[in-house]
Specification:
single chain; 752 residues; nine-stranded mixed sheet; four-stranded antiparallel sheet; 12 helices; 15% helix
Length: 752
């Protein structure tokens, strides 16, 4: 057995379990509907206000027992308790952006099934609709002079073929559509004089078959990435950039055209150009091209474009430009294999980039934003303001805020690992941010970043601005205890143990009563869990309130611990990660309050895979629940839209002998005969990320073998059945886990 290292919490961040929570209610399953999620934080140009989005779960007025997600925009003057809603009603509002003069915001609302941009003056006027584009409009960004708004839209291949603006000259794609038997793409231009006739000529038969496709009687698939999240998608779609003047009845003009996409646009400070990310090789089919280049686009719609960063085998993404236009920060990584975005900086001079340097920061950064360094001054007629880059990154169980000094390339951590900053923006020398913590799943806060370090995190003295989840104060909670394990590769694995909530309310029972233990595992496999991770807040607290202890770990392969740790499960999805999570479970089982005869296990997606793998190799668990998992890697290669995990992690494809042997050795299905643990299997009926055949194979095989197994399909459900998706099905999922486990580890072992 490997040596277990206990890590005592610093700064008193762990709450003592003996602290009485008398009079507080336990977390219930329907408390899921009470959680309000803060996001989309944007501060005003003068730094005195901020807007943000609040996502809630509301009862569906038209469907009994159903719920709807609603998102609305709030405004705050950065004072505690003063946020007020700017939007309301049945239609959600999202993606707010301030005008440069701070007098208006642009935002997105759905109209007749399409996202459109609205503008709201903040002097009390009504919001008015700016765009009425047939393709829809999203992600508005005001131009530096406030006269235009840049936005994105999505158009299908057939749409672009007919659109004289997005496809001037009505040309065909320069890359092959890969239809067998056709040397060119001419087949997508049917002769309209030919009438559909199933008994006619070859041309008439083809016209008839094309009509069947139009009438949705058939889907013809020639593309590689044809699986969406919930249905097959034979037709490609492309993201294009538009700009529109901020006035009523203005006509949006396309800034990009053609049969490829443009992502992550950002205005240049001079307003003359826009940076964007697009396919590096525009002559290659978009499904096959994985390299991404950074380009400069003319903002006048002329179509002029200049390549700034482009290299074979590389991707560049998430660009952000300093306010003076002289510096660029972005993310980059290799296009193939197991990777995470590396932080990089470069000098920017109009339409050229130089001195690109990768920053020594071994975490996956995101939400890159520039801010003026506190104390710097701008002299009249000159630009001497010093700027820094602020960003977040999942790390060690949380999502801290970091600051990058462009001059020294040094990164400073500004907040702790025990909370997660999900969205933020800068207001002078302060940060306005949405934070997740065990004590409260989501609120808006304000804190000064000057002088903040790991030892003095800005979260410690932050001012709470909102009260959206104050109901949690009346609930009894369980607070996790962090521990570490040194695995066989010499890596430090972090894990957390949560005691049953009742133990905090009545410590006297802790020495006599025994509780079941739940090992809960994350998917990805590059996900990361911890006290600062928002998606599992309710599930962890619910099971603790139901009398279960919970242990969860970040085994090798998890994100948040650097690229070497993330790659430590390459060609080893089962054995190595199993060592790590079972070490955590073994240590938790040593607690005096754990009934070692009542241990259970669950996980979803990759962790559904890991659940099945573990019960095929270990018999300690009384019951297991495997959710939306992958069980046969060869089948997964064809069935799931996440199929690139196969070549990225296992070095090739199933038809290659050595790879096939590795896939078989790493597939839980190979060991199906060893599974004797009672198993509940769940899958969304429309889940194309992992594919339902995975679950059907496992279930049917165990049923033939006469093993205790049950299978639950969620009609209409996709892969997102825990974090998003139908709320009633999310509640159903939680209750099914609990009910199934109670059959085997309930106090009375009730099997009725």
């Amino acid at each position: 057995m490997k040596k277990l290292l206990l890590l005592t919490a610093a700064f008193g961040l762990l709450f003592p379990y003996a602290h009485a929570q008398t009079g507080k209610q336990k977390i219930t399953v329907t408390d899921l509907t009470r959680i309000r999620q803060v996001g989309g934080v944007k501060t005003s140009p003068d730094g005195k206000h901020a807007v943000y989005t609040l996502t809630t779960i509301e009862p569906d007025a038209e469907k009994k027992d159903e719920y709807e997600y609603k998102t609305h925009i709030f405004l705050t003057g950065l004072k505690p308790g003063d946020p007020k809603p700017l939007t309301n009603g049945s239609e959600s509002a999202r993606q707010p952006d301030w005008s440069p003069d701070g007098q208006s915001i642009a935002f997105v609302r759905t109209v007749k099934g399409k996202s459109q941009i609205f503008v709201m003056p903040l002097d009390g006027g009504e919001a008015w609709q700016l765009t009425k584009l047939s393709y829809g409009a999203s992600s508005p960004q005001w131009s530096p002079d406030g006269k235009q708004i840049l936005f994105t839209t999505s158009a299908s291949l057939s749409d672009i073929l007919k659109d004289s603006l997005l496809n001037q000259g009505k040309t065909l794609p320069a890359w092959s559509l890969e239809k067998p038997g056709f040397a060119t793409n001419e087949f997508i231009k049917p002769d309209k004089t030919v009438k559909a006739n199933p008994d006619g000529s070859l041309a008439e038969i083809r016209a008839y078959l094309n009509k069947d496709v139009e009438d949705k009687k058939a889907k013809v698939i020639n593309r590689l990435n044809f699986q969406g999240e919930s249905t097959t998608e034979p037709e490609l779609s492309f993201t294009h950039l538009y700009a529109v003047e901020v006035k009523e009845n203005a006509t949006p003009k396309p800034l990009t055209r053609g049969f490829y996409s443009f992502q992550a646009p950002v205005w240049m400070p001079d307003g003359q150009g826009i940076l964007a990310v697009t396919d590096r090789d525009t002559l290659r089919h978009p499904d096959r091209e994985q390299d991404a280049a950074l380009i400069w686009l003319a903002a006048d719609g002329s179509g002029k474009r200049i390549s700034l960063l482009s290299e074979a085998g590389k991707t560049y993404f998430s660009p952000s430009v300093s306010p003076d236009g002289r510096q660029l920060v972005l993310l980059t990584n290799s296009a193939q294999g197991v990777n995470a975005g590396q932080l990089a900086m470069a000098a920017l001079n109009g339409t050229s980039v130089s001195d690109l340097q990768v920053v020594a920061f071994d975490r996956a950064a995101g939400n890159l934003k520039w801010g003026a360094v506190a104390g710097s001054k701008k002299k009249k007629g000159t630009s001497t303001t010093a700027y820094a880059v602020f960003f977040t990154a999942s790390s060690n169980g949380g999502a801290p805020l970091y600051r990058l000094d462009p001059a020294t390339k040094q990164v400073t951590q500004l907040s702790d690992f025990d909370s997660g900053i999900s969205a933020f923006d800068l207001a002078g020398d302060q940060v306005v941010f949405a934070k997740t913590a065990v004590a409260n799943p989501s609120e808006l806060y304000l804190a000064a970043y000057t002088g903040a370090t790991t030892q003095k995190p800005l979260t410690a003295n932050a001012v709470k601005l909102s009260n959206h989840n104050d109901w949690v104060a009346g609930k009894a909670l369980s607070f996790p205890e962090k521990r570490t394990y040194k695995n066989s590769k010499g890596q430090t694995v972090e894990y957390w143990i949560m005691k049953p909530t009742a133990m905090a309310a009545n410590e006297a029972s802790a020495s006599t009563k025994k509780y079941p233990l739940l090992l809960n595992m994350h998917g990805g496999p590059t996900a990361m869990w911890g006290p600062g991770e928002a998606s599992m807040w309710h599930e962890f607290q619910y099971f603790c309130s139901q009398g279960y202890g919970v242990v969860y770990a970040n085994p090798r392969g998890s994100g948040g611990y650097g690229i070497d740790f993330q790659r430590a499960n390459v060609k080893d999805w089962g054995t190595g990660p199993t060592e790590d999570v079972l070490a955590a479970a073994t240590d938790a089982a040593r607690e005096a309050w754990v009934d070692t005869s009542r241990q259970v296990i669950t996980g979803g997606s990759y962790a559904g895979y890991l659940t099945a793998w573990i019960v095929a190799h270990d018999n300690r668990f009384k019951a297991a629940f495997s959710q939306r998992g992958v069980y046969d890697l060869t089948t997964f290669m064809g069935e799931g839209n996440a199929w690139r995990l196969v070549p990225n992690y296992f070095g090739g494809y199933p038809w290659q002998k050595q790879v096939a042997e590795t896939l078989e050795a790493n597939s839980p299905y190979t060991f199906v005969e060893n599974i004797k643990t009672p198993l509940l299997i769940k899958h969304g009926e429309n889940d194309l990320r992992t594919g339902v055949i995975q679950s059907e194979m496992l279930y049917k095989s165990l049923k033939i073998l006469g093993r205790p197994v049950e299978y639950v399909r969620m009609p209409g459900g996709t892969h997102e059945m825990s974090r998003t998706g139908n709320v009633r099905q999310r509640i159903d999922r939680m209750l099914r886990i609990y009910e199934f486990f109670e059959r085997y580890v309930g106090e009375k072992n009730n099997r009725q």
